[in-house]
Amino acid sequence: MVAAKAVAAVPRPDLLERLAVQTAERAQAQLQRHLRTITHAEGPWVESNGQRLLAFCSNDYLGLAQHPQLIAALKHAADAHGVGSGSAHLICGHHREHAVLEEALAEWTGRERALLFSTGYMANLGVMQALLQRDELCVQDKLNHACLLDGAQLAGATLKRYPHADADAARRQLRSHAESRALLATDGVFSMDGDIAPLRELAELCADEGATLMVDDAHGLGVLGSEGAGSITEAGLSERDVPILMATLGKALGCSGAFVAGSAALIDGLTQFARTYIYTTAMPPALAAAARCAVALARRENWRREKLAHAIQRFRHGATQLGLPLMPSRTAIQPLLLGDAQHALEVSRGLETQGLLAIAIRPPTVPQGQARLRITLSALHEEEHVDRLLQALASLQLAQAPV
Ligand SMILES: *Cc1c(COP(=O)(O)O)cnc(C)c1O
Question: Could you tell me the fold of the domain covering 37-62+302-400?
């Protein structure tokens, strides 16, 4: 039989063509994103396009990414075990380096167990997909990280987003679906704003309403709380109040990867059902070895948090004197709210001509009209670095700039 060759009445629309149109539209709106290639990194300095720039955009808050002990741990483990893990955790990719890192992370965060994921993005997708079934309720802060929102969508959950940090609104959303199993998920420290979620209120609310609380502490771990154990510890909360903690190894810990920590029952369940854990290659054992070294340094070397706090304080003091549009943040994320996307881009370029790198964050990453310069500080920054940033910002006369 010869297959019928029907002639379509209307030509099928093309996928790649539409993508190209969308890309062109974004360029037209001057909102396209550009890759920057870094040719060298050293402390707070990066080299790009042959220019040496003082960077205020890395999430390496404790300055561990280039620590000689981490590098040595990575090299040592690579010599012993090679580069790749070889397979997924549940096949034969789960190495002793992973197991001891999980134990160290659980102990640090005061939880029964921890489970490694290859990235934070995958950890959040995996948790949501394992816990939530179709049409079950997922309540989230409007400013949560994109991957928490994506996770709820992937699970097919009913996603309700409450106004930023508004626990009363979250309560109303939970009450409006009182019969459904419910997860409330929030960033601990908000990645584009730097402020901290009202964790105590949210924990109380979840206890009242029988919902499960999940905190993504990507920007809190290492930075907040005793020994840097994170925003949950700082808020005086425990595993009972916040049963699900997710955090990454790629920010203050200076490595890459992520983990979920909680009860043994949670971890056993994720091991069985979190697809982004099961169907992916385990992180390189050498990376796990480096991360374990980072955990030890992050816990022990309080001076890193103190130095970071000093840089934050110096920056905020100087920026206030200059009348710069600071946001209410006490963390390493210190954005300047500039409003207009083009203006934010111009400020970023203005800094670059003075040898400083800070990135303009524009819609759709942040809401329309809330473009900003996302400045991040680190234990790598000396007073003179912060002062240099302040001088450059002063020269751009931001305080008087039109918004
Ligand atoms: C960076 C980040 C993630 C994603 O982590 P990766 O390991 O980079 O995939 C998740 N949540 C928050 C709040 C983040 O800032």
Answer: Aspartate Aminotransferase, domain 1 (3.90.1150)
